[in-house]
Amino acid sequence: MSNAGTTTHYPAATVSQQVESHTLSVLVDNEPGVLARVIGLFSGRGYNIDSLTVSETEHEKHLSRITIVTRGTPMVIEQIKNQLERLVPVHRVVDMTIAGPAIQRELAMVKVRGKGDNRVEALRLADAFRARVIDAGTESFVFEITGASDKIESFIALMIPLGLVEVSRTGIVAIGRGPEGM
Amino acid sequence: MTKDITGAEMVIEALADQGVKHLFGYPGGAVLPIYDALFQQDKIQHILVRHEQGAVHAAEGYARSTGKVGCVLVTSGPGATNAVTGLTDALMDSIPIVVITGQVPTHLIGNDAFQECDTVGITRPCTKHNYLVKSVADLPRVLHEAFHIAASGRPGPVVVDIPKDIQFAKGPYSKPREFDHKGYRPKLKGDLNKIRAAIELMQHAKRPLFYTGGGVINSGPAASQLLRELVKLTGFPITSTLMGLGAYPASDPQWLGMLGMHGTWEANWSMHDCDLMICIGARFDDRITGRLDAFSPGSKKIHVDIDPSSINKNVKVDVPIIGDCAHVLDDMVRLWRTGSVTPDKKALEAWWQQIGKWRARKSLAYNNSNELIKPQYAIQRLYELTKDRDTYITTEVGQHQMWAAQFYRFEEPNRWMTSGGLGTMGYGLPASVGVQLAHPDSLVIDIAGEASVLMTMQEMSTAVQYDLPVKIFIINNQYMGMVRQWQELLHGGRYAHSYTEALPDFVKLAEAYHAVGIRCEKPGDVDGAIREMIDVKRPVIFDCVVDPNENCFPMIPSGRAHNEMLLGGAAEDIEEAVTEEGKVMV
Q1: Inter-chain contact B181–A7, Cβ cutoff 8 Å?
Q2: pLDDT tens-digit readout, B484-521
């Protein structure tokens, strides 16, 4: 038989669709292990995580909101949503990318070290990007900047030649526009 | 005011309130308080297994043959890790079980204490849900929740990990209550508009086919009844996955046999050529679809499943219906009846004619022998001699499992227990123990392979201890037959480690366990030996020595489509030419 070369007893991978990036908001019970369940699902099934944020959002109800930016074909994105909804502590999953207009923001703290012209230039650029100075010394600044990820990327890129030391980013949080909640 | 009881006593109370009569388990340090409580009551019978994997498979067999939740009690550390294979098996096949594991005291968790393991961490990906109980106040609620989650929606295994100090701690017990959970609300009723759309498609279909699976069995006996009704109303052909056998009677003329990698010629060709596929409680597994981009290319697909994540996972469907099989089938039957829907009879007639031609290939035919027992023959005779009895069949995994699926013909649901999704060798013997316990007067047979059954052979000791007259019917070809078959077909006949050189003498082994051993080596002796096995009211190991070189056909080879199926040498060679390479496999 002419099956030599494909000596597997599993079907071959088939041609896949275009890969898209989606932002998912996941409302979960804030209980031990809930984040492990979500992350384990992604690693166990081979899904991507580009960004992940999590914090308690409703203290009385013990609810946390997880925001995940992930990549995959439309079929995989649908799978991810369905698999997440299967987890017992998960209350709701909303795909912010298709649910309607949504705002996505990130916060970064950017440490820059330098003197003289570089220092002045960093401050001038920070002002243009509406980044705030949250720590200042004679030879360094820490800027706080919020905005869409590409804005933060541009700001960081500009800081590199001016003495970028390190960056700490929150990852993306998202919320829908308009009066309705998720 | 109820008086406070210990956590260990709560476990007993909760199990009793949940209707548990039998508990499969193995004691150890971290569950001693629960065993102490078990010792002082008589509501629940404990079945002492010989290995924790056996406990879980026994609970699975119990659950699958009764429709109830199976229950297991094991200790911490190795007790829990030994249960992992069974948990994964139950997850893959959607079997409702609750496994209670002991844990080291809460103050020692994370300390690498003796017999400590991260049970909730280890079992997270192989359970439907799991709990670590850190306060005795939560214990009654968690236990009741565990049973609810295991049994409802798409069933599955649930682990409750209870530290030893919680088993000693006292608190008030509470009875099961109505379950209300924001995150867990399985949808039972299907969307009526979608069901109407499905009926519309069914009415106009020219080449329709029902493709059903384990979801119909899991949904309960009503689902099987409704399925039979709908199939009769429509006049459509029906095939099923390995997991779904028995939901529709194999003796009915509309039954095409099992589909998939070792399915019948007519079932797989019908899947390939149909114009409407009605999938009920099956999940388009890779053993079913074969090559995905050539899977049933010309059909519209209706998919009924209780688990939304099963929809569009492998195959894009046209009409997804999320709901419980029995509920959706009930709506379908009702709409079909009240709408006086009539199918396209003329087209159906032509479709059945085509199916008749595929059937004429006799894809399950094999060359029988007067010298060697053919495995197919052994199973056929077993079927003929047991079909009029109250019989339950379990299997191990491999060639014998596929032959059992092909040649043992099931008329009723819950009679067939096999490890489908995970393919766990060693499943059948402990599963038969669980089945026999639930059905003490029935005939329970494990159709086994000699390699598989050795993986959990120690449970024979359990069967003997509890007077469970299970029949272990070993199709002994001395090989890991399915591995050997793949090595023959795909790896140039290099039989790497698939031959077992030092098999035990199964008759003596049976005697060592205080069971009965029967050996059969000649085709002419098969009937008599099987009758003898049935008549013995004790556990039996039946060593059926078969042709070691027989292969299991039909077969869809790796990465091929349904219409590229291979047949064995004995199949009828008529009409549609099979390619030469497809024809001869040996």
Answers
A1: no
A2: 999 998 889 999 999 999 999 999 999 999 999 999 99
Nearest to B325 by CA among B393, B240, B419: B240
In the numeric block, the tokens 């079945």 are attached to B47
Paired strand residues for B240: B212, B258
pLDDT at B383 (0 to 100): 98
Question: Which residue numbers of A have CB closer than 8 Å to B's CBs?
Answer: 1-4, 6-12, 14-15, 28-29, 32-33, 36-37, 40, 44, 75, 78-79, 82-83, 85-91
Contacts of B204 (CB under 8 A, 6+ apart): B344
Contact B473, B532 (CB under 8 A): no
Round to whole Å and give the CA distance between B196 and B202.
10
Q: Do B124 and A8 touch (CB under 8 A)?
A: no
Minimal Cα–Cα distance from B135 to chain A, Å?
13
Residue that has been written with the tokens 């959002």 in this structure: A57
Task: Please give the Cα distance from B451 to B479 (Å, whole number).
Answer: 7
Residue A143's DSSP bridge partners are A110, A133
Q: Give B270-312 as a 3 state SS string.
A: HHHHCCEEEEECCCCCHHHHCCHHHCCCCCEEEEEECCHHHCC
CA dist., res. B173 & res. B158, Å (int): 21
Which of A8, A14, A79 is the closest to B293 by Cβ?
A14
- B312 CB near a chain A CB, below 8 Å? yes
For chain B, count helices (H), then strands (E): 24, 20
Which of B181, B306, B490 is the best mutation test for A, with the most CBs of A within 10 A?
B490
- Rounded Cα distance between B9 and B11, Å, is 5
* Cβ count near B188 (within 10 Å): 16
Instruction: For residue B167, give every residue at least 6 positions away whose Cβ sits within 8 Å of its Cβ, in sequence order, or none.
Output: B6, B7, B8, B11, B31, B33, B34, B102
Task: Please name which of B220, B195, B133 lies closest in space to residue B414, comparing C-alpha atoms.
Answer: B220
Please compute the mean of the pLDDT values over residues B127-155 and round it to a whole number.
98
Q: What is the pLDDT of residues B172-220, one digit of tens each?
A: 999 999 888 888 999 999 999 999 999 999 999 999 999 999 999 999 9
Contact criterion met (CB below 8 Å) for B57 and B86:
yes
**CA B487 – CA B481 distance, rounded (Å):** 10
d(CA B481, CA B43): 44
Q: How many CB atoms lie within 10 A of CB B196?
A: 15
Q: Which residues of chain B does A2 touch, with a Cβ-Cβ cutoff of 8 Å?
A: 581
How confident is the model at residue A8, as a pLDDT? 65
- Quote the pTM value: 0.94
Enzyme catalytic residues of B? 52, 114-115, 164, 482
Tens of pLDDT along B12-67? 999 999 999 999 999 999 999 999 999 999 999 999 999 999 999 999 999 999 99
Nearest CA in chain A to B312: A75
Helices (H), chain A: 34-44, 74-86, 117-128, 149-163
Contact B553, B568 (CB under 8 A): yes
Q: Give A-chain residues touching B560 at CB under 8 angstroms.
A: 3
Q: First vs last Cα of chain B: how many Å apart?
A: 75
Determine the distance from the C-alpha atom of residue A109 to the mean position of all C-alpha atoms in its chain, rounded to a whole number: 16
Residue whose token pair is 């086994």: B448
Indicate whether A154 pLDDT > 90.
yes
Strands (E), B92-232: 97-103, 129-132, 157-163, 170-171, 208-212
| Half-sphere exposure for B273 (CA within 13 Å, toward CB) | 17
- B124 CB near a chain A CB, below 8 Å? yes
